[in-house]
Amino acid sequence: MSDLHNWAVNYKYGAARVHHPKTVEQVQELVNQGRNVKALGTRHSFNDIADTPEDLISMEHFDRVLVLDRHRMTVTVQAGITYGRLCEELNREGYALHNLASLPHISVSGACATATHGSGDTNGNLATAVSAMELVRADGSLVHLSRDRDGEEFQGAVVGLGGLGVVTSLTLDILPAFAVKQEVYERLPLSELANHFDEITSSAYSVSLFTDWRSSTFNQVWLKSRVTDSGADKWQPTFYGAMLAKQNLHPVPGHSAESCTEQMGVPGRWHERLPHFRMGFTPSNGEELQSEYLVPRGQAFEALRAIDSLKQQIGPLLLISEVRTIAADRLWMSTAYDRSSVSIHFTWKKIWAGVRKLLPRIEEQLAPFDARPHWGKLSKVSPARLRSLYERLPDFQQTLQSYDPQGKFRNAFLDRFIYL
Question: Taking the model in full, what pTM does it have?
Answer without folding.
Answer: 0.96
